[in-house]
Structures are given as C-alpha cells and as structure tokens.
Design a protein that fits this description.
Mean pLDDT: 93
Radius of gyration: 20 Å
Low-confidence stretches: 376-386
Distance between the termini: 25 Å
Length: about 375
Amino acid sequence: MSKIKIAIVGMGNCASSLIQGIHYYQDKDPAEAIGLMHPVIGGYGPSDIEVVAAWDIDARKVGKDVSEAIFEKPNCTTVFCPDIPETGVKVEMGRVLDGFSEHMRDYPEERTFVLADAPEPDKAQVVQRLKGSGAEVLMNYLPVGSEEATRFYAECALDAGVAFVNNIPVFIASDPEWAARFEQAGIPIIGDDIKAQVGATITHRTLTDLFAKRGVKLERTYQLNTGGNTDFLNMLNRARLASKKESKTEVVQAVTAERLPEEDIHVGPSDYVPWQKDNKLCFIRMEGKLFGDVPMNLELRLSVEDSPNSAGVAIDAIRCAKLARSRGLAGVIHAPSSYFCKHPPRQVTDDEAYRLMEAFINDTQGKLHEVPDTGRGEREPAQATG
C-alpha cells in the first residue's frame, strides 16, 4: 500500500508531535499501540504517512530537513521519539501575511518566532510545490489569528487539488462559501479547529452533556487555560482571539440543554506562563441546580502536554482525508469534522459524532448517509452527502 503524502504549513510543536508519532508507532503492534484512537483506518497505520513538503517562517527551521526542524526552538514539546531519520524534505520559507504578530518581537528568541530573511513564495510557487511533491493532504498549523495566511494556503490547496485539514480556528470548512468552493473543486476538507484527544474542550463538552442528560440545570460556567508554548504567547495579542473564543465557546454551547446567556459562560485562553512550556493547565468550573432546585458546583483541573494531545487526533484526520479522496468525496467531510474539530459546520453531541465517525470509517462503499445538525443537536432525517 502506498504512503499518504502530506504537506505541512507551520513546523511548530503540533507538527513536531505529529511527525514523532508517525515514527514512534512504526514498530508497534496495533493491539498494544497506546494512545491511538484508531490504530488502522482504511488499511493505513500512522507510519503510512509521509511528509513531502513543509513551510515555516522561522530562521531556525527554514532550509533544514524536516527531521531536524521539528526539534528547533521555539519548539518545546515533549520529545518522545528523538531518532527521526532524515526525510530529504527541506522546510521552505512560507508566506508571512498575518501569520506573525508584532508583539512576538518583544520576547526572548528561545521562546518566540524569529522571522527568516528569505523571499516569500507566491501562490503559484506553493501550488507548484504541492503538485510536484505529490501531496494529497495539506495540514494547516499556522498560529491562531492567521486569517489571511490560512486563506492563502486554502487557495493553494484548491488550485493544487489537495485535501485541506484546518487545525486552527480560522473558519474555512464552517464558512458556507469556502465549503462550496471545495465541493465544486472536488476536494475534501476537514475542519475547523482541531480538538485534543482528551483536552479542555472535550472534557468540558462531556461534562456539559452529562449535566443535560442527568437533569441538572447548568447556570454558569468557565474554562480557563494557561500554557507556555508559542501558541499561548501568540494569543497574548487579544485581537487575534475572536475566532478562537467563538470556536471554544460554541463547542460547549452546542451541548447545553439550554443555551447560556453570554455573561454566564466564559471559555478561552487565560494567560501565558513561560515555565509551563507545552504543558497546558485547564481550570473548569460549572455551577447548577439539581433535584429540588438545590445548588451544586463542580471544579476540575486538567494538565496535559498540549501538542501530543492534538497529534493524537490529527493522525486520524489525515487518514480520513485520504479515505475521502479515495472515495471521490468532495467538500466538507462532516463525520470527521464533527468528531475531530471544535467548530465544524454541523455540531452534534460527541456520542453522535463518534457513531457517525465509525460509520464513515467502515463505509467501504463510500455511500455514507450522515445526519445533519440543526444547531442544537436535534437530528433531521438522514440524507446523502457528497
């Protein structure tokens, strides 16, 4: 079976964890492979993924082999697979646009981005590289708030005929106009804003859904997150957070029994703590009333290594994008988007998303019927999707 060829935009911590994982699981018995939601999807294991093109804007990464670039500063995630063989793929200078926030210049080089002094590619050059590399899937790992840069690479994917997995909270798959363009071009897209394997979002959603199912009225809640990687440093510029806050808030609102007023729900990044590095701390508080209008509250503290937590989902998203291509599907691939992402076009409960996801994977005929979401988790009669 041939490799799944991927291209990556942004060689940060998440890309590092993903590439480490591709090699880490190479010699693992699928039955004993800890940390994989699906050891095999469509006949493909994690080690069947191959990076064939990569872009970044950091001087310490541009021009280096992918195997070396993923361990360069400011990357600070856990190294769980240090022996990555040379890939023969050099990281190329990317298009900056709004992918770099000026406040990042105010921090020590070992913690922030250092812009490379190299010519930026135009769209024709990126498209040519995608086509020449044989890439089938383009992974978007740009910093939060990179609206223009994300649209640039989405355009490149469209022109090159490459599936697009949008891991960040810039709304492409969930924008009807963009979704229609991918469908018309015959290209699959999965997005937007990847969930972690077991992170703040999935935990908060699960607890919110539990309140609803057990008859507890949720009256107010918050989710506060701190971390010390470049993602949290980048998000100190609050002007870049509009789509991030919307994405993280709506994914919780989607499973409440009754939508909370804006003043009673706060979900979003809180602060940058340098010594935490890639460790993310999440603090959740939920206040409600149960039987007899008696008050109750729940508080939770979650500590996770942020980037491996993301890579555990991305490695499935890549293989689902490959399946979609193989089956001739186009536009938004809804089951993986709803299961893997915070801001998919169709929000359903996680139980429903899981069911649809498993059906998608096992649908060898490529005739999956999905259940559209009305925005509050109610389901309508099934209809075929492209």
